[in-house]
Amino acid sequence: MVSKTDEQLVTKSEFARRAGVSAAAISRACADGRLTPALREHNGREVLAAGHAARLWRMGRREPSPLPELESLELEPLPPLPELTQAIAEGLPPIAESRARRMYYLAERERIELQQLQGELVSAAEVREAAFKQGREVRDALMALPARLAPPLAVMTDPREVHQLLSEAIRVELTRLARVGSSPLAPE
């Protein structure tokens, strides 16, 4: 191997002549960094290490450069994907069947999207949220009954009157909730 000190140094113009390109092309390659590793300083001038510059020039021009250490390298094949291996072992379906399945699933997806746009189909999260809000309203209304009914119930002694007052208050509250809430879960 030739050391840096023993390597032949040439001017940019001489290298351009040898490479069969203009001196401007070599200057651009030096400026944009493609030949920078081959630049040397000699007697106050920038020169190129000819062999190194030639290798860099070939690489920059995408010319194949033989790399003997890679030729002897043996690569192991990548293992196949388990799903693909299983599908191949089971036998792939004919292309017409695959296309028919794809068309069916695309049509199903479009049908679901249409039902969503028409309001016939809502997400489970929206249903859970609406049910939670309604349940909270009912709970709050029923929990407010004792505070509202405690004074009249305190003076009553007849169990039938207590039952009648409680039943009427619950019925009135549930009727009010049914009118006011107009459930987003109820069918229209």
Write structural notes for this entry.
- This protein has helices at about 10-20, 25-30, 50-60, 70, 80-90, 95-115, 125-155, 160-180; strands at about 10, 40, 45-50.
- It is mainly α.
- The protein has 3 domains: about 10-65; about 85-115; about 125-180.
- The chain has a 3-stranded antiparallel sheet.
- Helix 1 packs across helix 2 and helix 7 (about 125-155) packs antiparallel against helix 8.
- Residues about 1-5 and about 60-65 have low confidence and may be disordered.
Which runs of at least 5 residues are low in confidence (pLDDT < 50)?
1-5, 62-67
Spatial order of strands in the largest sheet? 1-3-2
- Note the main sheet: 3 strands, antiparallel
User: How many structural domains are formed by the residues?
Assistant: 3
Instruction: Please tally the β strands and state the result.
Output: 3
The SSE order reads EHHEEHHHHHH
- By DSSP (H or I, 4+ residues per run), the number of helices equals 8
Specify the helix fraction band: 55-70%
Over all CA atoms, what is the radius of gyration? 43 Å
What share of the residues does DSSP label as strand, in percent? 5-15%
Indicate the structural class.
mainly alpha
Q: Categorize the overall geometry.
A: elongated
Global mean pLDDT: 80
